[in-house]
Write a structure and sequence with these properties.
The chain is 21% helix and 28% strand. With 331 residues, it is of the alpha+beta class. The strands form three sheets. Strands 1, 2, 5, 6, 7, 10, 11, 12, 13, 14, 15, 16 and 17 form a 13-stranded mixed β-sheet that branches. A two-stranded parallel sheet has the order 3-4. GO terms for molecular function: cysteine-type deubiquitinase activity.
C-alpha cells in the first residue's frame, strides 16, 4: 500500500506528530520552485538494461528542490564520506546532467547494476539511500530522522484511524511515507483511486480489532488519510502483479493539477494543490521486460520526453495521454 520508511508513531495530542529532539534541516530553506532557469539537461546512455534507471534519474533530476540543493553543492560541503554517499553521487549526476545540455552522458557507475529492474523499487532504493546519507549518526530518534532534507522534500504522514463500532473509541496511528502506491484495478482515474485509498474498511471476523476500552475483540472501522502532506508527492500506480509479474495495461486518467485536500485528515479547508512535473512510463507486458521512459517539465516550463539518449520537446496533451506508472507532483 505505502512506502513506510520508519516505525509507526502513536498519536497522543494536537496533530499527533511528536516534536523531534533536533532539527536536521530547516524547512524554510527548501525552495519548491527552480532557483534559476537551466538549459534542458543531457540524455542518458543506455549501457545495458538501464532504461529503468535512466527514466528514474531524469525524474529526480527535474525535481526542483532536489536539483536546487544539488546544484548549489550544499551536501558535499559538509559530507564526511563522499565515496559511499548517495547524496554526493546524486549531486555529481545532476551537476553533469545540466552541464552537458544537448549531449548524451553515461549514468554514474554507482547506479548501474546490470539487470532490468522495477523503476519504483529503484526509486525507493535511491530515496532511502539519500535519506541515510542525510543522517549524521545512527542514534537519532525517528522524529529527528524525519527532519532531514530528503524527508522534508519527499516525506509526509498517513493517519490510520480505527474506531470501535461498539463503544466508538478511536485509536490513531501515524505512519511516515515517501510515496503513495494506489490500487487501480477498479479505478478509472487517480482521483477515484485516492477515493478508494481513503475509503473506510470494516475489521471483523478473523480481522476483528481488540478494543482497549471494551477489553475484547470487536468489529471496527479502519480508515487511512493523508495527515501531513509531502512537498513532493510521488504516486505509484500498482500495475504489476506481486507474484506473476503480469501487468495491468489500462488507461488511468491523471490531472495536471491535483487537489489533495479531500483525502486528508482535515478534509475541510484551503485546497492542497499539486502540479504535475514528471511522468514515468513502462511499455511492455510484464515487469521483467519492456521499456521505461519519462516526461519531465523543465525549469523553463517546457515539457520534454526523455527516452534514454533521446531528448525531445513534448506537450501537456502528450504527457496526460500516457499509461503512467509513476507520477511526480509538487506543491
Amino acid at each position: 500500500m505505502i512506502s513506510i520508511m520508519c516505525i509507526s508513531l502513536a498519536v497522543t495530542s494536537g496533530n499527533g506528530i511528536a516534536p523531534p529532539q533536533r532539527l536536521l534541516f530547516p524547512p524554510e530553506a527548501i525552495s519548491l520552485t527552480w532557483a534559476q532557469v537551466q538549459h534542458i539537461g543531457a540524455g542518458l546512455r543506455n549501457v545495458g538494461n538501464t532504461c529503468f534507471l535512466n527514466a528514474t534519474l531524469q525524474c529526480l533530476s527535474y525535481t526542483p528542490p532536489l536539483s536546487n540543493y544539488m546544484l548549489a553543492q550544499e551536501h558535499s560541503k559538509t559530507c564526511d564520506d563522499p565515496v559511499l554517499c548517495m547524496m554526493c553521487t546524486m549531486q555529481d549526476h545532476i551537476t553533469e546532467v545540466f552541464a552537458n545540455s544537448g549531449k548524451v552522458i553515461k549514468p554514474l557507475g554507482e547506479f548501474c547494476r546490470g539487470n532490468q529492474e522495477d523503476a519504483h523499487e529503484f526509486l525507493r532504493h535511491i530515496v532511502s539511500a539519500m535519506q541515510s546519507s542525510c543522517l549524521p549518526g545512527p542514534e537519532l530518534d525517528m522524529r529527528t530522522q524525519e527532519t532531514s532534507f530528503i524527508h522534508q522534500v519527499f516525506g509526509g504522514y498517513l493517519r490510520s484511524r480505527v474506531e470501535c463500532l461498539n463503544c466508538k473509541a478511536v485509536s490513531d496511528t501515524l505512519e511516515p511515507f515517501m510515496d503513495v502506491a494506489l490500487e487501480i484495478q477498479t479505478a478509472p482515474s487517480v482521483t477515484k483511486a485516492l477515493e478508494q485509498f481513503v475509503r473506510p474498511e470494516q475489521l471483523g471476523g478473523e480481522n476483528a480489532y481488540r478494543c482497549s476500552e471494551c477489553k475484547k475483540m470487536v468489529t471496527a472501522s479502519k480508515r487511512l488519510t493523508i495527515h501531513r502532506s509531502s512537498n513532493v508527492l510521488t504516486v505509484a500506480l500498482k500495475r504489476f502483479a506481486d507474484f506473476s509479474g503480469g501487468k495491468l495495461t489500462k488507461d488511468v486518467k491523471y490531472p495536471e493539477y491535483l487537489d489533495l485536500r479531500p483525502f486528508m485528515s482535515q478534509s475541510q479547508g484551503e485546497p492542497e494543490i499539486y502540479g504535475l512535473y514528471a511522468v514515468l512510463v513502462h511499455s511492455g507486458s510484464s515487469c521483467d521486460s519492456g521499456h521505461y521512459f519519462c516526461y519531465i517539465k523543465a525549469s523553463s516550463g517546457q515539457w520534454y520526453k526523455m527516452d534514454d539518449s533521446s531528448v525531445a520537446v513534448s506537450d501537456i496533451r502528450s504527457v496526460l495521454s500516457q499509461q503512467a506508472y509513476l507520477l511526480f507532483y509538487i506543491k
